[in-house]
Amino acid sequence: MHSVIAKLRGYAQDGLQNTRGEFGQLLSLTPLSVKLDEDPTPLEPYELATLRSASLRQEDVGKKVALLRCTNDQYLLLGVVE
Fold it and tell me: pLDDT tens digits for 18-37?
């Protein structure tokens, strides 16, 4: 059992190589737009994918969000940081 868990963990870590957590400000929902804390230029809609369970609402615009930089040069928007 431990070897199976270790193998699954290894696969998960391989998939997360070259990813980095980042934070930004949600600028709008339609089109989806986020400005990263470290970059003053807002990300374009094609650069962003939203985690299905993020359930962003209009009230979340202007709040800080967490993102993952993916290996395909896109960002996965995880949701609002409370």
Answer: 567 899 999 999 899 999 99
User: Peptide bond preceding 31: is omega within 30 degrees of 0, i.e. cis?
Assistant: yes
One-letter amino acid identity for 61? V
- The sign one gets for the Cα dihedral 19, 21, 25, 31 is positive
Instruction: Please give the domain boundaries of the chain with CATH numbers for all domains.
Output: 20-80 (2.40.50)
CB of 34 within 8 A of CB of 24? Answer: yes
50: which residues sit within 8 A by CB, 6+ positions away?
32, 56, 76, 77
